[in-house]
Amino acid sequence: MKDLVDILKKVLKEEILVYRDLLNLMNEKTEILIEGNIEKLDKLTNKENNIVNKLGKFDNLRNKVIFNIQHKAGMNEDIDILRLLKILDDEDKKEVFDLREEFLEVLSKIKDKNQLNSSLIKDSLDYVNLNISMFTEEEDEITYGNKNKKSTISIFNQEA
Questions:
Q1: Residue 115's closest CA among 25, 26, 20, 37?
Q2: Cβ–Cβ under 8 Å, residues 18 and 58
Q3: Where are the domains of the chain?
Q4: N or C: which end of the chain has fewer CB atoms below 10 A?
């Protein structure tokens, strides 16, 4: 079982590094959103998608390793990392616990950054909708003759 625990620790370390890469991209995304640079945002989104795919593979690998540890330990119920700590020796327990804490810290930062970026995107969309709305509103009546017939001036006739 020791070899599986070592693999788990290695997977967790690698997964944390990839999450840190994602956090760095999200910090970069914040700056790009503030700049309003669509081309950079598109490139960055592609990078984010690649990292998310990589994280999915790490997640699957981590779950398989935990599953194998569970079976090797003779446990029938599904376990998570907290339950896994109960069956580890003191040295491994401390290291896995520390990795779990680091993992949760990075995830918390990602969540906060994601909320900020979502807010920036929403604000940008609100601004775009406001501008579209300004261009599509009916102008004051422009009539020559029949007062019941309105003529409207509109550049756009759609909303984004």
A1: 26
A2: yes
A3: 2-136
A4: C
Q: What is the pTM for the complete model shown?
A: 0.75
pLDDT digits (tens, 9 = 90+) for 119-144: 888 877 877 777 787 777 655 445 55
C-alpha span between 50 and 149 (Å, rounded) = 56
**pLDDT number for residue 139:** 52
* Lookup: tokens for 119: 């807010």
Which burial class, exposed, middle or buried, applies to 138 when counting CB atoms under 10 A from its CB (0-12, 13-18, 19+)?
exposed
C-alpha separations of 63 from 3, 68, 98, 150 in Å: 15, 9, 18, 66
- In single-letter form, the type of residue at position 97 comes to F
Instruction: State how far the Cα of 54 lies from the Cα of 59, in Å rounded to an integer.
Output: 9
Torsions phi, psi for 157 (to 5 deg): -125, 30
pLDDT under 50: residue ranges of the chain: 140-141, 151-160
| Structural contact between residues 15 and 58, judged by C-beta atoms closer than 8 angstroms | yes
